[in-house]
Amino acid sequence: MSKKNRKFKGNKEREMADIKEKLLKESLEAAKKKAEEDAEKAKSEEVKDEKDTLEEAADAPEKAEGTVEDAEKTEASGENAEMQEGELPADDGPTSTLAKSESDKKDAKIAELNDRLIRNLAEFDNFRKRTDKEKSQMFEMGAKSIIEKILPAIDSFELGIAAMSEEDKASGVGQGMEKIYKQLMTILEGAGVKQIEALGKEFDPNLHNAVMHEENEEFGENTVSQELQKGYMYNDSVIRHSMVKVAN
């Protein structure tokens, strides 16, 4: 993938992430606003019902005024006196049931919105983790690609330095080549690149690529006797296997 395509893909992913985050925020704000409106509506209806009940209770004595006899008024006064001494008026069953029903509906709506909010937050968290993982993988792929292209230049430096005589190494050109080579290796090590140890190590197919075999008593069986080309690793993954000769 070219640099331009990777940049375009990264921009599109960031745009999609911003859009999803914006939609999530709008959904949460709309749900919160709806819950507040429903709660305010339920409260208004409850207050209205209580007001109607009080008005009906206030109108009842006015309708009954002048239609009862003095004896009935005396009896009512006695009953009111007994009620004041300790008895409570009967509970208004229908009004209490209606208020309880409205309260249950409000609680159910709040629970539903809360569950929806929790689900949306969980989905957004999963999306964020997945996006971070994809970004990390893309960065690692890009780093490996660049390192693979640099390795041939390092090989050329090593071959050139190895072919130089001691006199050439002491010259300005030789010293300059050695300094550039060391600088390149320092930069790669700082980026997480390291050489694979091969010479004298037991052959490991995960790290080494055996291209030759020989009988050599100086080394044990299945031991790398010569390193033909250095191998490199980036963090914990192999970029290039070491090309080696193995003693039988």
Give a verbal description of the structure.
This protein is an alpha+beta fold. It folds into two domains: 3-148; 153-247, Nucleotide Exchange Factor Grpe, Chain A, domain 2 (Roll). The chain has five helices and six strands. The chain has helices at residues 3-64, 70-85, 93-163, 166-170, 172-190, and strands spanning 193-195, 208-214, 223-229, 232-234, 237-240, 242-247. A hairpin with a 2-residue loop joins strand 4 (232-234) and strand 5. The protein starts with a helix and ends with a strand.
Features:
248 residues; alpha+beta; Nucleotide Exchange Factor Grpe, Chain A, domain 2; 2 domains; 3-stranded antiparallel β-sheet; 3-stranded mixed β-sheet
In short:
The protein has about 250 residues and is an alpha+beta fold. The chain has five helices and six strands.
Order of helical and strand elements: HHHHHEEEEEE
Assess the beta-strand content as a share of residues: 5-15%
Kindly report how far apart the N and C termini lie: 43 Å
Which structural class is indicated by helix and strand composition?
alpha+beta
Spatial order of the strands in the main sheet? 1-4-5
Count of the domains = 2
Topology:
Layout (H helix, E strand, L loop, with lengths): L2 H62 L5 H16 L7 H71 L2 H5 L1 H19 L2 E3 L12 E7 L8 E7 L2 E3 L2 E4 L1 E6 L1
Helix pairs in contact: 1-3, 3-5
